[in-house]
Amino acid sequence: RSDIPGVIFLSPSQPNYLADGSNSSQVASTDQPTSPRLTCEVMCQTSSSTTDSSRRKIRMEFGAGSGDWVVARAQEDPNTAWVANEIRCERVYHIWARKTMASINNLLVVGGDARTVLANTQPDVVDSVFVNFPVPPTWSGSKHRLLDEDFLRAVAKVLRIPSKTDKQSVEGKQRGVKKSKQPGTSVSSKAPLAQAGVFYILTDSKSYCLELVQTFAKLEAEGVYKNRLESPYVTSCPDNYGVTSFFDALWKQGDRTSRYFLQYCRNK
Predict the structure, then answer these.
(1) Taking the model in full, what pTM does it have?
(2) Radius of gyration for the alpha carbons in the chain, expressed in angstroms and rounded
(3) Which positions ≥6 away from 263 have C-beta within 8 Å?
(4) Which of 128, 154, 166, 256 has the fewest CB atoms within 10 Å, i.e. the most exposed one?
(5) For 37-116, where are the E strands, in sequence order?
(6) pLDDT tens per residue, range 15-42
(7) Cβ atoms within 10 A of the Cβ of 191, count?
(8) What would the pLDDT profile of 221-249 be if each residue is shown by its tens digit?
(9) Which residue(s) pair with 234 in the sheet?
(10) At what angle do helices 149-158 and 206-221 cross, to 10 degrees?
(11) 129 near 159, Cβ under 8 Å?
């Protein structure tokens, strides 16, 4: 169904693939009609009369899974408009069910390929983008890997450019917080989440992290992004980042306990 309040399906412009590169019947349906463009009003679920200064902040998670992280964040932060994207239909409905049972009204669920969602998102209005535990294909350079250079560029286009006020607010909160310049060290639990224009990535794969660092370095050289940390990545995230997901908790019971956290803000 595509008529459920708080749920939008976007028809992909290309086949949907799973993390292993295979096409699947379990992905969000390709025969859904193309939804309206994801404007600021659609994502905030407000009228067009809402002024820019009074609108809620918009934060998006791609690959939201069953919604463990984003549902908790939306519940904790009711004044922010949250958008959860997931490619698998059953997970889209799972997120919707969880938000409905919790009476959450500030979370929009979008089913479809993440690249299609970005292509249908109004530029320059999203305050934060999150990707938690992306599952890369087993081979490097696969065209089905989500976090490639094209995807990072597409994310930058929808992110809001931080204003001078945003930057001063974050810098003021960070004053006195020590951060190491050595890669792989921990970030202070006091470090705040950015006010606008930041792409957050959390992964348990060091090789994937290092590949992302190389890609971001190229985009930094072009002036597209700027690293918010004083090292390419850190091995923990701020306490206020949010609850762990089901799989995060599950993996921590075994030997997959390492975490790698990246923060890059849009630069232009």
Answers:
(1) 0.81
(2) 18
(3) 194, 198, 199, 200, 227, 228, 229
(4) 256
(5) 58-62, 81-86, 107-111
(6) 333 333 344 444 444 444 444 479 998 9
(7) 22
(8) 999 999 999 899 999 877 778 766 666 66
(9) 261
(10) 60
(11) yes
